[in-house]
Amino acid sequence: MEKLLQISDFAKLANTNRRTLIFYDESGLFHPHTVNDAGYRLYSYDQLYQISFILGLRELGLSINEIKQYLQEPDSAVLSKQLHQLDAKIEQQIHHLKQVQMTIRQRLVHPQVIKQAKLYQPIITYLPEASFWCSDYSVDCTVEEMANIFSDFYSKLNMSMVTNNLRSGFKTNLRQPVADQYANAGFRIIKEQSIPALNYDLPTITKSAGNYIVVKVKNTSPEIEKGLTLIADYLKKHQLDCTGELWQINIGNKIERAGFTATGLLEYQLKEQ
């Protein structure tokens, strides 16, 4: 007479647990060899191989219904199709987990800001090349429109990007630090790309390496305009010229209004002498 194992012993043999075997029985996926008069589930040694296969498919991520379908139609083409679908799902999960991992790592890294910058005191410093995702150009936005642009931009990235320590801010279409032209200048929302860069359906721009004039300001329109005037005065006093558009870089990641943190950096690249 074939020796049968009680559920706890069979679960131990199969490296699983009693609860899983009961669930598989109740869901119609894997039944015991027999149920005795006392209502105990009993299993044969030969059933070890089928439960091991089922557990392997579950570990790969197949659902109960998908495994049932395969067991009913044990065709390699059916399993191949399911595994291709699973592979695509895993790829998406890996992509998402990389975003989460990058966010966690960035939260552990000291924010990349210029520590020596003091409010309203322009400095000259070398800045390395950096790449940013960016939105389309927008001009003269209301608070509501700005919120919609911000939401759309980060929905195309990942909302977790808002919280990481990669630099964010604006690239503003203001080629000279003229304060009274700031209010009407076009802008792009920008977010520094991770390394290695993840792929998103957004344009990218590169900030060239070089010497920059930088001033730390409070991120309100009057204070930004004050900072632009300080930059203009500094350039004139030291007979320097800037090139390219204005980079507005947030300090920190706590966005308070209109895509700005409380303080930020105004940056213009200097022309080579």
Describe this structure in words.
It comes from Limosilactobacillus frumenti DSM 13145. InterPro entries: DNA-bd_dom_put_sf, MerR-type_HTH_dom, MerR_fam. The chain has 7 helices and 11 strands. The protein is an alpha+beta fold and 273 residues long. The protein has an 8-stranded antiparallel β-sheet, covered by helices on one side. The protein has 2 domains: 4-74, Multidrug-efflux Transporter Regulator, Chain: A, Domain 2, CATH 1.10.1660.10; 123-270, Regulatory factor, effector binding domain (Multidrug-efflux Transporter 1 Regulator Bmrr, Chain A), CATH 3.20.80.10. A hairpin with a 5-residue loop joins strand 2 (34-35) and strand 3.
Name the CATH homologous superfamily of the largest domain: Regulatory factor, effector binding domain
The number of distinct structural domains comes to 2
CATH class of the largest domain: Alpha Beta
Q: What is the distance, rounded to the nearest whole angstrom, between the alpha carbons of the first and last residues?
A: 97 Å
Which residues form runs of ≥5 with pLDDT under 50?
A: 109-113
Q: Could you describe the largest sheet, including whether it forms a barrel?
A: 8 strands, antiparallel
Fraction of residues in H or I helices? 25-40%
What fold name stands as the CATH topology of the largest domain? Multidrug-efflux Transporter 1 Regulator Bmrr, Chain A
What percentage of the residues does DSSP assign to strands (E)? 15-25%
Task: Kindly state the number of beta strands.
Answer: 11
CATH architecture of the largest domain: Alpha-Beta Barrel
Total of DSSP H or I helical runs spanning 4+ residues: 7
Strand order, sheet with most strands: 4-9-11-10-6-7-5-8
Shape: rod-shaped
- The radius of gyration is 30 Å
> Pairing-aware structural class of the strands and helices?
alpha+beta
Query: What would the average pLDDT be, to the nearest integer?
Result: 86
Q: Can you write the helix and strand succession as a string?
A: EHHEEHHHEEHEEEEHEE
